[in-house]
Amino acid sequence: MKKIILVAVLFIATSATMQAQFLRFGVKAGVNFANQTGDGAFNGIAVDKEGITSYHAGLVAEIKLLEKFSIQPELLYSTQGASYKAAGQEFKNKLGYLSIPVMAKFYLSKSFSLELGPQASFLLSEKNDFNVKDSKTFDFGLNAGLGFKITDNIFIQGRYGIGLTEASKDADVKNSVFQLSAGFMF
């Protein structure tokens, strides 16, 4: 009986150590430089677009599959949108999304990584200055970026995301965002 308990304890300890090496969790946050691509006409009215500065924050996991390859799923709250000018008036359209990027991480060295992957986003909130709630509730896009591990626990990332689906029911616009992030892995 003692041998069985000893083997079970050793197995659990070994499994926990292996899990810690192959699966890590963390948090990240940063700044978004967001805009919307496309013709920018709302209901046939031409407008000029400018980007907005906003933020993102959330949870991250890294699943190490090979020595130089990992999968990094994330769960983020991210605000995107643009500022529009038409007929001498300016209005902002801020969209709050629950974003779920799943990044493939290719390590170029021990610290640098190239990151590529899809992202599904679900609209949680819409703030605008013109009382129109015309944004679509789902946004699908692709992301590409670079990551750098400062220490084993602290990292920074730069990423560009382009929307592949239209963000509005009434305009031909798609989300576009450049993100700078800092994070901590536990």
Automatic annotation (TrEMBL):
Q: Which residues form the Outer membrane protein beta-barrel domain?
A: 19-166
Signal sequence residues:
1-20
Q: Which UniProt keywords apply?
A: Signal
Instruction: Specify whether Signal is a keyword of the entry.
Output: yes
InterPro entries per the UniProt record, alphabetical: Beta-barrel_OMP_2, OMP/PagP_B-barrel
User: What name does UniProt use for this protein?
Assistant: PorT family protein
User: From which source organism is this entry?
Assistant: Flavobacterium shii
